[in-house]
Write a structure and sequence with these properties.
Layout: H1 12-16, H2 22-31, E1 37-42, E2 46-51, E3 59-64, E4 69-72, H3 82-93, H4 105-126, H5 134-163, H6 175-187, H7 191-206, H8 223-242, H9 249-259, H10 265-269, E5 273-288, E6 291-300, E7 306-314, E8 327-335, E9 343-346, E10 353-354, H11 364-377, E11 384-396, E12 399-403, E13 409-412, H12 418-426, E14 431-437, E15 442-449, E16 452-455, E17 462-463
Parallel strand pairs: 5-17
Antiparallel strand pairs: 1-2, 2-3, 3-4, 5-6, 5-8, 6-7, 8-9, 8-10, 11-12, 11-14, 12-13, 14-15, 15-16
Length: about 475
Amino acid sequence: MNPPIMMHQWSSAEILQFAPDPATARSGQDLAQRRKWARLGADEQALWGECQGSGAKPYQVQIDLSEPAFKCSCPSRKFPCKHGVGLFLLSLTAAAEFTEPIRPGFVQEWLESRKTRAEKTEAKAAKVEKPRDESAATKRKTDRLARIRAGMADLTAWTEDLVKPGIATMAGKSYEFFDGQARRMVDAQAPGLARLIRELGDVAASGSRESGRSATGGPARLWHARFLERLAIIHLICSATANWDTLLPDDRAALEAVFGVPVPSQDLGQLPSVRDLWQVVGREVEFEDRLKVQRTWLFGQQTHRTALILDFAHGTSALDASLSLGLQYDTELVFYPGHSLRAAVRGTTGDPQRITEPSGLELITDLLNAYSRQLQACPWLETLAIPLLGIIPTVDPHGYAFLDRCGESLPVVARDGAIYTLLAISGGQPINVTAEFDGTSLHPLAAFAGGIWSPLTSLETRER
């Protein structure tokens, strides 16, 4: 029996990206052993198997390789579950064991149901949409912006009151103090500002437990500086909103994005697209209560432009897996208005190819210039992720840093052992790393090693 034919030759690092949390990834690795599977099969589109669980009846596991998509008969509410991850990993290490060539009934029924749903979705998309009532849409947006601007006036007074007694007093404020103001911004229909205010509260809470060293071994930035930095951004947003009538259209659109005002698909569809060979160079998943937020960073081979694809999933719903780290797609992106890094894929992504020659920046100065240009266009920029080529991870008396070939460096803040992985990969030699830059330090996301981009954060998602 020949090994299963896959539409894309996945690596174990890429497969582990699909795990919804670190525990599922670890359990999936434990299940990637032939002795734990009663049957295994594959064809050009699917993988399937039966894994013996705690019950008398084995769990039926199946993977549609065209996306990939997963299904399992186990009671887990995670998607994909550990059995799906384990089966996928096993297909790499024991491909010759997938000896069953004919799809069993449960696999065939599932694939047919998926095809039927896809056809219905395409048919629905092909229908001529009912014209949008432009006057009603304009009125709804005008009413929402009026509520937001009224809420921003209240927020301006709140930020000024924070400064009067001195920032040092903020460390003693309760969570409810900040959450109450955040809820008021939600009521004003500006959820984006609510998130910034809660993050402000998180920084204040860190003041009571802050030490003189950071988690990465370097000197910690005092919470007062981080608090003042975030407060200044919020106040800048308030000031810009107060001058709303004098702002240019792009600046207004940037503020609307900060507020959390969505861009209708009809409006996005009318914007020009950017065609390039887009390389997927970084991915990270964050949790906000039951909401999963997936941030996928792309870099254009020709345009050298950065793009951020956001995807959201509630509860156990699956995140979009159409763009995979380490692959490049010849496709078009539409960038959201307002000098935004955020983009959406227009049309299909076609047949991806593995990245063999990563694109990026070679000098720290080039990164600083790129960040400065983006910050000039959007003053409330949070982070910018760009591949850095030929940099060396180093350790100095102040902590960790990335060093370029000209001797320039930037500090690195890495989570959960990522810096040790980079040091091991590098061995003191130049490597390629994708990192988010927040204007102060770098947060590594992925490293190019062994001919592929490997995630540094895929197994350790962050909670916000």
